[in-house]
Amino acid sequence: MKKILVSECLYGGRTVRYDGGDVTENHPVFLKWKEEGRLIPICPEVFGGLPVPRPDSQRIGDKVKTGAGKDVTEEYTKGAREVLRLAEENDVIFAVMKQDSPSCGSRYIYDGTFTDTKKEGQGLAVEYLRNAGFKVFGEEELDEAEKYLKEKEQSLTAK
Predict the structure, then answer these.
(1) Integer CA distances (angstroms), 46 to 39, 54, 109, 142, 143, in order
(2) Residue 159: per-residue pLDDT
(3) What percent of the chain stands above pLDDT 70?
(4) In the prediction, which pLDDT does 148 show?
(5) Which of 40, 73, 103, 105 has its CA 20 to 30 A from that of 135?
(6) Which residue, among 74, 57, 144, 155, has the nearest Cα to 109 in the 3D structure?
């Protein structure tokens, strides 16, 4: 059974979000994968050594900074490298990451102005995963991810 990397804030059970909040995913497809034991929960920010809660951060070009201007790129990079290591070590089929995050956003991230303005872009961990050839979905793309999983598993069993 192929494994799926998932943002731990979506997985639930442990508080990892920057604001200490809860965004546990309850989509039936996600719950099925969880029950099957497919999901590998990861939190790049925690892997990078950042606390919970932590200051809100946004990606600004190649940097990640807090609203107060502190550069936390090093911590985000360390976390992204660990996420990639786990993806490769577990031969995951794809990842489902939390949209808008400076680590995990797969289609949109905040624009760095700290005004709740989003732009097209990807988080640092997603960039690392995609550069290594991994497919990444956001939590709003679970039906598409399920279709992708079925197609890939059928092609693997056909070989």
Answers:
(1) 18, 10, 19, 24, 28
(2) 64
(3) 99
(4) 97
(5) 73
(6) 57
